[in-house]
Amino acid sequence: MSDTGTKIPRFAVVGRVNKGKSSVIASLIENDAVKISPRPGTTTECVRYDVEVDGRVLFSVIDTPGFEDAPRALHWIKQREETAADRVERVRELVAAFEGTDDFVQERRLLRPILDGAAILYVVNGDEPYRRNYETEMEILRYTGQPAMALINRSGSGAHVDDWRRALNQYFKLVRFFDAHAVAWENRRKLLEAFATLEPKWESSIAQAVSALQAQEERRTYQVANIIADMLVDALTLHLSVVLPDERALPHERSRLERDFHDRLRDIEKKAHQKIATVYLHRLDDWSPETDIELGPSDDLFSKETWDVMGLSPRALLTLTTLTGAAAGGAVDAAVGFASAFTGTVLGGLGGLGVGVYELTRRFASASNVADQAMSAVKDPKDGYRVRVGPHPSLNFPFVLLARSLDHASRVQAWAHAKKELPPPGEGESVVDRIDASTKRRLSKVFSTIQKKYRDVPREARAELRKLVHQLADQ
Ligand SMILES: Nc1nc2c(ncn2[C@@H]2O[C@H](COP(=O)(O)OP(=O)(O)OP(=O)(O)O)[C@@H](O)[C@H]2O)c(=O)[nH]1
Ligand SMILES: [Mg+2]
What we know:
- The chain is α/β, with parallel strands linked by helices.
- The chain folds into two domains: 10-198, Rossmann fold (3-Layer(aba) Sandwich); 219-474, no CATH class.
- 50% of the residues lie in helices and 11% in strands.
- The chain is built from 17 helices and nine strands.
- The chain has helices spanning 21-29, 70-80, 87-97, 105-115, 134-143, 161-171, 185-198, 203-237, 250-279, 304-310, 314-324, 331-343, 350-361, 396-413, 431-434, 437-452, 459-474; strands at 10-15, 47-53, 56-63, 119-125, 148-153, 174-177, 240-244, 368-369, 385-389.
- Strands 2-3-1-4-5-6 form a six-stranded mixed beta sheet, with helices on both faces. A three-stranded antiparallel beta sheet has the order 7-9-8, with helices on one face.
- Helix 8 packs antiparallel against helix 9 and helix 11 packs across helix 16.
- The protein is elongated, with a radius of gyration of 30 Å.
- Bound molecules: guanosine-5'-triphosphate and magnesium ion.
- The site of magnesium ion has 5 residues, from helix 1.
């Protein structure tokens, strides 16, 4: 009879030093605090991690130090063994006999939780060849009589995986792949479901854990969509203004104001991206210089590369403005000139296309004297010059923001906790290209409403935007 102790399932993650035991735990339970390093012997004490959802512990995993001298430990046990029936007792004896000595320190630490009822998750590195000397530690684990599963970590290269599988099958009831650096929710769910088959007594607890985590995963998608929708409203309504004593100050203030405006937009985006990472229990705000990846041009919100890749094509923009009647955002106050130039355009006429597309794809907003603008009647009471920059005039701008945040969200979702860096941006087709035409139309309509009514965004526009972003996030 195996002793699996309490009703809350417990799993001891064991294996040789430096094979990825702690990494498997970090990714499985989404915990960045687990100590991982290329240096062998990083984990020296057992650490128990309780996985909780809504304040209830669903199961625990125990990180352990790696086997150090399994051959000698096995030899000690075998010398004293009479039949297979008393092997567990001999393992217990080993743990007790060397208490307080410097012998078998790691082995005693890692065996204790197993003897106390934890099931075994044996982690190997599938990148390395299988060697006979792993058999001593697998033998000791078998002697404990506890339910056990083997996990082949780093199976990516595939070179030695078949050997490992054949060998592990001899010792373990279940053998699974689990790449600590490349796991997403699906892999975690499958592993948890496999746990349930290890010990019948734990079946219902594990089933509850899986459904609680599934519900949590769905809640996360919902939260992410709200973060993105709120970010879009904040970015589309942002505007800065200053009052200048006289006209001559304008050229000097202009570039500062414009820079400030674009930096604030970058900041709105960055904060939203950090928030998205937090939803998945990742942190983006405390990167140390050595973990920080070098920023390329495509990382900046306003780089040409970003807009080329993430934004709508000129033709798509033109079609959208025509179909929705959405005026380009520059439109907000100063669109009159542009709008009439645009209306006068014969569709497809190159001249018109040029003018229209320039406004719709303009990456930078410019500061202007409000009193100069055709649609604004605001004169500063003190008779100074009121200069304003924003809201951002381009219809392409919200699409770029949306595409970047959806891309970011899927990267965060695929980001295994054992890994330090966020996976690189997706290659190929932009998210925007995958949005169907009718959704694009509805989006451009709502974007344009928000840009126009930036002082007081109608509640319906916010609701519509959330709804659309939810649909996109669900896909
Ligand atoms: N590329 C890659 N590296 C991994 C993977 N899993 C672990 N590593 C690396 O392997 C090294 C050891 O990982 P740990 O998780 O600390 O291994 P451990 O078995 O807990 O090690 P000890 O605590 O020292 O026994 C670290 O540098 C990890 O980043 C993986 O799936 N892919
Ligand atoms: Mg470790």
